[in-house]
Every structure is written in C-alpha cells, then in structure tokens.
Structures
1.
Amino acid sequence: MTDDGNMEDDAARLDRLLAAVPAPAVPAALERRILAEFDRVRRHANIDAVQARWTFAKALRRAADAVWPGAPVWAPAGAFALAFLIGTGIAAFAPFDIPQTDDAGASVFALDASPDVDAGQGI
Amino acid sequence: MDPDADLVLRVGRGDRAAAAELMARHLPKMLALARRMLPDPSEADDAVQDAFIQLWTHAARWEPGRAKFGTWLYRVTLNKCYDRLRRRPTGRLEEAAEVADPAPGPDAGLQNAALTVQIEAALAALPERQRAAIQLCHYQGCGNIEAAEILGISVEALESLLARGRRTLRGRLEHLKDEGLEHD
C-alpha cells in the first residue's frame, strides 16, 4: 500500500475513533438554571427601566427647584405656561403698522441732483 | 436567512417560550463543546450558563444580518471556556490528560467506555486551539469557514490547526488502531 493510502486509512480510523465518543446528555438542572437566569435578567431589565423613569423625574425635580426652590413642580411649570401665553398673546394682538411721521418725506432728495440744491445743511 | 433570527428578536422582547426554544436548539451542542474543552464537567456547565447569560443580556440589542447567530453563540461559549482555562493552574490540565488510561476490560461495554475515556483524554491533552478546531469540525458539524469565523482565524490557519491536531491524535491513539470499535 502507498504512503497516501496509509494516510487515508489513518485519517478514516481517526474519524471513526472520534465518532465513537458519545455526546454528553444535557442535565435538566442546567436547563432550569439557564431559564432561571433568563427570568433574573428580564426582571433586572424591568427594574432598570423603572429606575430610568425615576432618574428623569429626579432631573425634572432638580430643574424645578432651581427655578422656584421649595415649590411643587406645577408652580414653575404653571408660571412658565402663563408667561408663554402672555408672550404669544402680545405677539398676536399688538399693532405692528407704525405710521410714518410727516417730516419723514422732507429729507428725501435725489442723490444725483445738482449741487445748488440745499440739502438742508446750510452748506 | 438566519434560522434563529426570529427567536432572538422574541427573546429580546422578553419572550420566555422563545428563550426555552433557543436553549433547546443550541444547548446540547454548546454543552458538548464546553465539556470537551474543559476537563471538569461542572465548570463546563458554568461556562455554558455564562454564555447563555450573555445571550439573555444582549438579545435586545441583537442586529439580524450582522453575523450568524449560531456562530456568535459558539464563539461566546468558546471564549467562556478559554477564560476558565486561563484561570486554571496549568498542572490541572496535565492531570486531566492523565486521568484516563484504564486497561480495557473483557466486557465489550466496558471496553467501549474505556475507549471513549482514552479518546477524550487524548483530546483533552491537545493544545486548546487545536482542540477547539477538532471539536468544531468533528463534533459541532461546522464547516471550515464557520469554524474559522468562530475561532477568529483564517481558513488556512484553521486547516493548519486541524492537521496538527489530527496528527497528534493519530500518534496518541496509535495503540487503539487494532482494537476495533463496537460502532463499526
């Protein structure tokens, strides 16, 4: 038999030997432990979400305290809303058509007019 | 399409039934891999459990299409095994390789058991990368490309590891050649 033939035989024998090793059985206790870990991780995820909400509430509380120390959150929020409404009302109803005064037109002259025109500066 | 993608997404949303199904699908192979990488079965169980904890924790952030889920999971399992091997005192690995060398008894069942123990001992004595390559290609049914991806090496490097591992195993199991196998 050739060397190549021997090597192939050896490889086939090794494959058979490796295949002879049975796969280990999965212990039921391990399955239970892994699923218990799933429950634990999910519970923690829920707690983290609740804590994140609480963190937002705390940040809001701190901001309100900075604006109006000691007051309940609705007080600075209400003051802000009232100021916003007043500002919006003024912007909506205040008159913007400011009439021109009569002498405004007197200073209008042509820039290319002859130099003998008195531009009102007594030159 | 990744056959596990839908299950992983459901696990990410907290679906326990999906978690159980995903576990049933992958646990036997993960356990086989870990048990052959780590000589202590309870340590192998812990490594697999750690890999699942990582899965449960990261499932919500899993992006389908980025990597095949099975490949990622076996890679995590293998890394958990490596972590534990690094923490072990080196002497224990040698002990593990020496544990199994009982003389084959007259009974065929016992003979097969002894044979299994000898093969497992020979596998356990391989350097860890060669052992991982043999495990993935012989026992996990991974193709060379997938096994290389799990090990984080090139296909050529994997083939080299496999060749060296097989050569070492052939040498160590030389004496079993003529014993024959009940499975044949």
Note: Chain B touches chain A at residues 11, 14, 16, 19-20, 23, 27-28, 31-32, 35, 41, 45, 48-49, 52-53, 56-57, 60, 112, 115-116, 119-120, 123, 134, 138-139, 166, 169-170, 173, 176-177, 181-184 (CB under 8 Å).
2.
Amino acid sequence: MIRMQEIILQPILLGLSSGIFCASYCFPFLIPFVVFEERRLKEDFKVILKFIFGRFFGYLTFGVIFAYLGEKTTNKTIDLLFSLSLAILSLLLILYSIGLIREKRDVCVAPKFKKTTPFMMGFLMGINICPPFLMAINYAFLLHALLEGILSFFLFFLATTIYFLPLTLLSFLNKINEFRIVARVSGILVGIMFLVYSFYKIFQIV
Amino acid sequence: MAKILFKLHQISGWVLLLLTILFFVSGYGMKKQIIPIDLAIKLHNKILPIPFLIFLILHCLFPIKNLLKRIPFQSIFAILFLIFIVSLAGFFIYRSEKGSKETPENFYPARFYETLGNKVVRCGLCPNRCVLSPGQIGFCKARKNIDGKLYSMVYGKIASQHLDPVEKKPLFHFLPGTLIYSIATTGCNLQCKFCQNWQISQVFPWEVETKKMTPEEVVEEAIKSGAKSIAFTYNEPTVYYEYMYDIAKLAKERGLKTAVISSGYINPEPLKELLPYIDAYKIDFKGFNNKFYQKMTVAGKVEPVMEAMKIIKESGVWLEIVNLVIPGENDSEEDLKNLILWIRDNLGTDVPLHFTRFHPDYKLLNIPPTPIETLKRARKMAIDLGLKYVYIGNVDDIEGSTTYCPESKEPAIVRKGFFVLQNNLDEKGQCKSGEKIPGIWE
C-alpha cells in the first residue's frame, strides 16, 4: 500500500502541486506561440501537444544523460548546456515572432522544419529544467527501482501537463487581430529578454 | 469554440461550488481539528487552491470572450496581455537569479569536510558522508558545496522557536518542571517516514519562513524568556552543527544549560567536539536493526547511532533514550528485548528509556497508533531486564511517566503529560530514603 502510494500517488500530487511552477516557466514561450498565428482549435491543440511531447523528450534526454554520465558532468557543463539551450530557444522564438519561421508554406523555409518548431521549442524547454523537475528526478532515483522510477517520473510529467492543456482555449484570442499583434510583440520581447539573460549567464560561466 | 467555452463555463461553475465547499470544510476542520490536521492543512493550503485557480480561470474565459467581442477596447486588453506575458518572463528570470544568488555571503562556512580534488568535497559531519560537486546540496538539505568549499545554509536561520516544558523533549532527569527554550532550523539527515516535524525537517531553508538570529541573540532571548536551558530540537540539530556549537558555547558562558534532541546520526569527531558544551543528549533510538533503519529512513544505519550513544555516555553528558514503538515494525518481543539488552549491557541500567506511542504522520499514515498495552508490555520487559528508569510517552499514564526511587520504589517525581505534579527529590536528586537518582537536578 505504501509502495503504491510512493509510486503513483506521490508523483501525481508532486506534479499537481508543482506543475503551476513548471507552467510559469514555460508559459512566456508558449502563450505567444499559441496566440500569434490564427489557427483552428484543433490546430492549436496539436501545437500544444507537440510542445508537450518535445518537453517530455527534453526531460528524458536530460535524465538519460545524467543517469549515464553521473558525476562525470560538472556543474559548469550543465549550466552552460542550460544557458545555450535557453539562447537557442529565445532565438527560435524571436525568429518565429518576426515571421522568419512560419507554419504556412512559404518560399524561404521548408515546411518540414516549420511543423517541428513547437516540438523543438518544447524540447529546448525540457532541457531547461525547472526545480520541480529536479525534485521529481530526485524522487524517482530515491525509489531505487528502474521501472518504478520511470513510472513515477512519467506520472509526475502527466500531472504537470494538465496545466498546459487549458492553453488550447486561448485559441479564441488568435482570432482577434490586436492580440495576434501583441503576441508577436511579446514573443519578440520575451525572446530578447531571455536571449540577453542567457548570454549574461554564458559570460558568467565562461 | 464559443460552445466549448460556454460548456466549460457551466461545468467549472459547478466544480467551483464544490471546491468552495471543500475549502470551507477543510478550513473549518483544520481550525476545529475535526479532521486530521495534516490532511486538512494539505487539502486547504496546498491541494485545493490549485484546481480552484484553474477552474476560476476556465470559468472566466467565456465572459472574457464575450466582453472582448462587445467592447471596443480590445487593444487595452491586448496590452494587458502583453504585460502579463512579459511579467511572467520577468518572474522566470527573477526566480532563476534568486536561486543562483545563494552565494557564500548568505551562508556560513561549514566544518568537518575534506576536499577530494576538482572542487569536489566529502562532508564528514554525519555517517551519510555526502560527496558533493560544486553547486550540490547535501542529503540533509542544509549544506552546500560552493566552488569547492562547504557551507551551512541554515546557520542563523530559525524555523521554529518555543518555550517548552523540559518534559516535552522528553527529558525526565534534567531540570524537572522547568522551561526549556527550544529552537530549530530546517533540514534533516535521516528523513524518517514517521517524522513529526516534517514541515521544517524535510525542506530547504528557503521553503519556509525563517527568522535570522545570531547565537548571541538566541542566548539573550533564552535568558529573557526565563528558561533554564536551551534545546536544539524539532529538526535534526546535527545538520545545523556550527550554529548549535556557537550557541551552546555561548550559553555555557552565560550560565544556561544545553540539551540536544537528536537521532544520534552524527560522526564521532564532531560529536566529541560538541559534547563539552552540552549538558544533556536525548537520542531517538529508532530501532535495533539496520532493516528497520533502511525501511523507515532513506539511508540510515543503526551502528553509528549506537556508537554515538556510547561516546555520549562515556563523556559524562546526561543521556536519555527514546524508542518510538511502531506497530508491526519494531514492536516485536525480540526487537524490544534486543534493544533493552543492548542499552543495559553497553550504556548501563541508569540510562532512562522512554517508549513512546506512535501516531500516524508524514508518510506513515496507514499504520494505527501504538496500543497502550504494547507500551506497558515494553516498559515491564525493560524493568524486568534490569533497567531502572523506564517510561512511556505520548500517552496519559501517570504510572508510566513517574520516576521511582529504585530501591524503596517510592515515587520520586510524579508527572502528568508534560507537567510535574509532585517532586519529592531534593536539590541533589536524592530520594527521602537517601537513594540518589542520576540526572541533572540543579
């Protein structure tokens, strides 16, 4: 009974209680992304799913790298990795906001790349781990069992994901021109803020 | 879209009503203690507000959509939207920077660690012996490696302070009937599943409200409060070793006595350095075997605790032992007997032993409270095996909390709960029959 509680209930509760923090880290990137293109509800949902899937993939990559390298990785390397991924993420957001990467078919960029942008953003966001994620990974390691650890981590991820799904409903905002413009501007502003911040961090590390 | 939003508006309205009722019920339950306090706090403060907020947002989406359609100030809302997004980004950066601001200036240099090269350190304070790369925090959530040097993150950060009866610790042979100024920081090096102070012991110092106090201020406050002694208690004092050491040293100079309420999970070297400034040590001897420690704590072992108790006893510091009896986990005849015999053979028959009642807490909510009969059985067994001062705690039992003169069997100190009803000992701890009861009495 206690084991069940540890593997299933605890990670779900952890995810539910800390998911709001996860969301506060991802929303500045995700919200402009949802609002600045006029799409149908279904399409917006797909964009968010891709983002979530990318985020999960990012988390997994991070987890596997850590499990493999263990203490071989120094804190400096990790910080540098975070800062670089944040810089790429910010750049991606700026490029998307100013229209250099578009979802609709365009002469300049191949459509295959454009469709994967939400996934890429989610992936880069996943690499930029947040404290609740660290807590979950720590918790999964403490269970001392591989499969149970993976299951508990997955449940944690699912619980945090709940907070992302309602974003689909912001779809109604992308029907309003003013919001589309503002979302683009906020995308550029947020992108610049984070780009500057990531460079500041990189210079600090190097 | 409009239909979906409208449906959501309706459904979320009902859910909000339900959540509001639950919110009031848990709040009322918490205040009146009708439902278990921990469950109520968790429900009221942690779990319910989140869905409440989500459903409130969902509930508002439909009216917002309609509002946006009808009024001509869409650009104003759009700008508010922009401010919201940029503020969220600012919040993200602020949070990240706040985390990285944990510079050595905010912390206190820790003792007992060795450098392993490449700025990796090994903490030597407790048997966990955490190996920490730069930036890593110890298992105790209280010590951090910053650039190859170990720092205490909890020095001077009081998470809890109270004026308690000394019997609450429990210390029965240490200044009976007096008040003890009790302090705690955050963190713990064992993480027991049945922890009763998990709100402060299982968290980082920035996760709870703390009050900054220098050792001088703590001692000053203790004197002002009228307490005769200071207790390092609630969370595991070992994790705030440097702070405890400085306070204890100062307290001694100012004529106060000191007591450590601990699991005893500490390495011999730091323990020996601390003992000259400590008058009493209460050790929570959780169970006699490693199996129990491994099951109930995250990484604990029993041997270091036994070693610590022997060192304390040999040093002459007053020692009392508590054993929390958990049904089905450490209450078997064999477990109790082994524990009693080990105490008798290694520490002597004069060491007071308290069998305390387990109450479901923290992660161990599925085990019922210990039957009082089990505690009485354990007490009888200990007395039969030769221990002179055996008590039962966390229950209202006058006989089990009375100190008896070992030969004449006359009641020496009669207690009820945390309070002394009758103290028949003289200032030196002598019974009327002339028998001396060991302890610290003045």
Note: The longest helix of chain A spans residues 2-35.
